[in-house]
Amino acid sequence: MSSSDDPQIDLDDFRRALSCFATGVAVVTTLDGSGERVGMTISSFSAVSLDPPLVLWSIADDAYSFDAFMRAEYFAVNVLTREQQHLSARFATKGANKFEGLECGKGSHGAPILADFAACFECRTEHRYEGGDHKIIVGRVLRMENRETEPLIVYRGRFLRAGGPVLRTGGPYSEES
Q1: Do residues 91 and 98 touch, judged by C-beta distance below 8 A?
Q2: Is the pLDDT of residue 99 over 50?
Q3: CB distance 134 to 125 below 8 Å
C-alpha cells in the first residue's frame, strides 16, 4: 500500500488518541563514537520476547542523538521512578549537556546508568527497523536490575502516580521522541 492509499489521519488527533495508552517513561543512554555520553527520554519502550530476552524502543529520524544510537552496539534503558520527572524533562531537551552534574555509573559495556531508576536494562543492539518517521531499535537484554519502586507513568500527556492522582501537567514528549 502506498502512502497515497492511506486514509488521511490528523496527526494531532492521532497523537491524542495514542496518549490514551498509559505508559512508563525511560531514559535510554549510550556512548557516541568519541566516547561521549548520550541520552534521551523515551516512552516508546516495550518487551518483544522473553526467550531470548528482547526489548524495543523507537527514535525519530530527526532526533538530535539519532546518529549516536544508530551506530551504538550497546545501550541502556533506565526506567524512571515517579520522583524523576525532572530527569524526564532534562533528557527531553534537545542538544543540552544532559549529564552535567548528574551522578551516573557505567554499564558492563560502557553505557551510562542513572544512579536511581525503577528498572534498568543493559542491551546489545540486535536489530534496527524502518518505522515511518522513526527507527525501531531491538535490543537483547544482557543484564538487568529491578529495584521494585514505582515507575513514572504518563497518560494523556500528564504524569500519573500509580493508583493515584495526576502529579502535574506536561509529559515527556520532546523534540527527540
Answers
A1: yes
A2: yes
A3: no
Enter the pTM of the model.
0.87
Q: Residues 56, 63: contact at Cβ < 8 Å?
A: no
Residue 133, all three cell numbers: 518517521
| Contacts with 126 (C-beta within 8 Å, 6 or more apart), sequence order | 54, 138, 139, 140
Is the CATH number 1.10.8.60 carried by domain 10-169? no
Reported as a single tens digit per residue, the pLDDT across 143-155 is 999 999 999 999 9
Q: What is the pLDDT of residue 162?
A: 60
Nearest to 118 by CA among 154, 80, 144: 80
**3-class state of residue 87 by DSSP:** helix
Predicted confidence at residue 1, as pLDDT, reads 41
Q: Is the peptide bond before 52 cis (omega within 30 degrees of 0)?
A: yes
User: Cell triple for residue 104?
Assistant: 551516573
Residue with the three cell numbers 525503577: 118
